Amino acid sequence: MTTPPPADPYGKEDTIMLTELYIGGQAVPAGDGGRFDVLDPATGQVIAAVADGTADDAISAVDAAHAAAASWAATAPRERAEILRAAFELMTERAEDLARLISLENGKALPDARGEVTYAAEFFRWYSEEAVRGAGQLTTAPSGANRIVVFHQPVGVCVLVTPWNFPAAMATRKMGPALAAGCTMILKPASDTPLTALAMAEILSAAGVPPGVVNVLPARRSGAVVSAMLHDPRVRKLSFTGSTEVGRVLLREAADQVVNTSMELGGNAPFVVFADADLDAAIEGAMIAKMRNAGEACTAANRFYVEAPVADEFARRLASRMSALVVGPGTEEGTQVGPLVNQDAVDKVHSLVRGSLEGGAKALAGGGRPDRPGFYYDPTVLVNVHPDAPILREEVFGPVAPIVSFDDEDEAVRMANDTEFGLVSYVYTGDLARGLRVTERLEAGMVGLNRGLVSDPAAPFGGVKQSGIGREGGHEGMLDYMETKYVAVDW
Ligand code: NAD
């Protein structure tokens, strides 16, 4: 049984704007009536007051997810697949509304927001195809005494915690595989961007997801709300995307009930350019790796290492491209770089840039904030950056490209690996053997080889070192929502 999606699931023409908690298929206010403001980063003005979930609301959401768990797990894979496919179709139909909503609450420029909707919707389509491909294993024990049967079952009630930088895609990257696997869930979105997550809940409901399977709990007091859920024994899985700092806290919290965890944490991506690289391609790749989402991406190139003979030319050309970018409100057509998410983000970026300039770096482009209301930062290129500068150690999370030159392959690899993070690395070279050799030596979960974009719903996304545990996307992404069961059969 698949419920055909209504033509206009929201009953509205232009906007999608749900502002209550979404529990058990109902929009409900917070138990204590609390609300919090969501701001438009382009102006700093309030755009909505959203219900502020409490720890008691969180337990109500667990009640709903737990009540729905057995029947959703028993729903035929084909039916789950068709519901996910309907959600993909609905997101595609509503793509422009969703892109505007993302741009409104997150600040990103509309082309980035449209790209996010396409990427986010693809997780529903890809996992609709994966839902019916559940595989098991049958082998004979080496002794010959019995057979070994292995199969996978949904892990159960999941808590999904997402960041503000991709408010749709980080939600669908978790919800798609969790739904396909047969899990029920409570999504706790970032408090800067709860509106997109609520719109996702509406889309899933309109696509036929039964009440209680997906619950969305906006909450400003994230610590209390998530902790309450992680201490409820009915919760079996935490999937978190966010900073390494918060990830560490949640790993400790999850330890109390030994909750299964997946952690997609911070990054500090090196972008390595060898002198034999196609420089035009390297500049194009750098613009994507650095400026997608105005640099507010865990995959954003954070440190540029360029071989000495081409370092000056690379810096000059990158600075010229960065200076030409149109900065403005994300929702305005023609804008290429929107504001950052909030004032704290601007202050952090500026303090890293100022520290670098005080340490002897030079700005070939940008270096400060434009004089306008809202949370803007100028696209910036820095050269002569001191190798120990904090800007090379911390996630910048903004439109800033620090460039350092290197002399040989060993030095490039050493500098690229000199970080506690290990999410993604980018390498540009015209020598395939070198590309593969360097790729093997890089401590990262993902490598872009002559390519500035690695994210793909069909690929296992994730990091090593302090960038995380587990993989999202691809076949591995669904296994992260399943337990492996083995049966010893005497036959
Ligand atoms: P954050 O860690 O501040 O917040 C992430 C989520 O955790 C939000 O929903 C937030 O409300 C919640 N949270 C914060 N404190 C909490 C606590 N004590 N207990 C429970 N929940 C808590 O991160 P952010 O600022 O929203 O996002 C930016 C970070 O996310 C960057 O570090 C970025 O690299 C990372 N990120 C990683 C990936 C990835 O796939 N590896 C993808 C996107 C973003």
From TrEMBL:
Keyword set includes Manganese: no
Name of the protein: NAD-dependent succinate-semialdehyde dehydrogenase
Domain Aldehyde dehydrogenase: 33-487
Protein keywords: Oxidoreductase
Signal peptide (residue range): none
Oxidoreductase among keywords: yes
Stretches that traverse the bilayer: none
Active site annotation, chain numbering: E264
Family, similarity comment: Belongs to the aldehyde dehydrogenase family.
Pfam families cross-referenced by the UniProt entry: Aldedh (PF00171)
PANTHER family: SUCCINATE-SEMIALDEHYDE DEHYDROGENASE, MITOCHONDRIAL
Listed GO biological process terms: gamma-aminobutyric acid catabolic process
SUPFAM superfamilies given in the database record: ALDH-like
GO molecular function: succinate-semialdehyde dehydrogenase (NAD+) activity
